[in-house]
Amino acid sequence: xxxxxxxxxxxxxxxxxxxxxxxxxxxxxxxxxxxxxxxxxxxxxxxxxxxxxxxxxxxxxxxxxxxxxxxxxxxxxxxxxxxxxxxxxxxxxxxxxxxxxxxxxxxxxxxxxxxxxxxxxxxxxxxxxxxxxxxxxxxxxxxxxxxxxxxxxxxxxxxxxxxxxxxxxxxxxxxxxxxxxxxxxxxxxxxxxxxxxxxxxxxxxxxxxxxxxxxxxxxxxxxxxxxxxxxxxxxxxxxxxxxxxxxxxxxxxxxxxxxxxxxxxxxxxxxxxxxxxxxxxxxxxxxxxxxxxxxxxxxxxxxxxxxxxxxxxxxxxxxxxxxxxxxxxxxxxxxxxxxxxxxxxxxxxxxxxxxxxxxxxxxxxxxxxxxxxxxxxxxxxxxxxxxxxxxxxxxxxx
Length: 398
Known about the structure:
Elements: E1 4-8, H1 12-24, E2 29-33, H2 41-49, E3 54-55, H3 60-63, H4 71-80, H5 83-92, E4 97-99, E5 104-107, H6 112-126, E6 129-131, E7 136-141, E8 145-149, E9 153-156, E10 158-161, H7 167-176, E11 184-186, E12 188-191, E13 204-212, E14 218-225, E15 229-231, H8 233-241, H9 243-248, E16 253-258, H10 264-277, H11 293-302, H12 315-326, E17 328-332, E18 334-337, E19 343-345, E20 353-354, E21 359-360, E22 366-368, H13 382-397
Parallel strand pairs: 1-2, 1-10, 2-6, 10-22
Antiparallel strand pairs: 3-5, 4-5, 7-8, 8-9, 11-19, 12-15, 12-18, 13-14, 13-16, 14-15, 16-17, 20-21
Helix pairs in contact: 1-6, 1-13, 2-6, 4-13, 10-12
């Protein structure tokens, strides 16, 4: 029996879901409603314009570790449609992908337009209609679903709601009766105004440890100095894992960093050995493992130790250096979005969703996919993969 399906949202989740619904059910009329004149804008900027389309990790148990919210609910869905399945889906449509050392997956062209072209070609091939500048204002369930926009009313048998992280969309779903969790930013850099990192943007500590003071939250990995403060994988992980806590703190908190990959005791032994082996060499001329030269020289200048010889270094200077390299405290005074990739924590409460079908439990015929749900992930293609998996399940269930 032919049905009319409305897909609300012209982003990654909406396009992918619409394509798979139409391919599985050729007789269905599938229409996408997009409130702007542009589609797939987030795909365009993902991965610095290369589109980090998924991740090379394939096992559900490995994947769910990268989802601060929604991890347990995604295990079985990932068994049904995995990262490997997505790469096969793209390959079937002529898009070759590659995995990089950090296991992020990109089209082999290194161009997000490749993914956009693939999706748009499928939309055209399958005859899926897109209504641009069609902002949904209200949805209502009568005998069928009624969708009210700026200019007209649509009726459909089933709805896929895939608008992304949109306050107006959450308002519409809340008015329908769905429960929405608290919405806060996720994946952001830490704003820090501190002379220790001023004028050093681009400096990278390859394996730092970062802890949010007063909590048990700690991450390890690369840390990057930016014009505004600190970023990099370790910072971004903390921003995602602590999204709700840091929002409550109004993004004013202390962090403690070990930049040296050493304990204070180990670093003290290294310094003692250098004092004995290189007493006539200047501190600034000996690189400490894991500490970029720019930062080491900047730190020595701040502590008036740049011209001091290893044999002349007193206990006070040694302790100051050890403290700054193993337990430096910085004051965070705000946040900045990570590149163009805006991610939120929060959305439709997951208890509202049957993850076997991605259908809302209390409103049959209403399916949800993408960031409209209270699911978010770290960087690495994980947010997109959640969209692909949810969209695939919807196409099998609808």
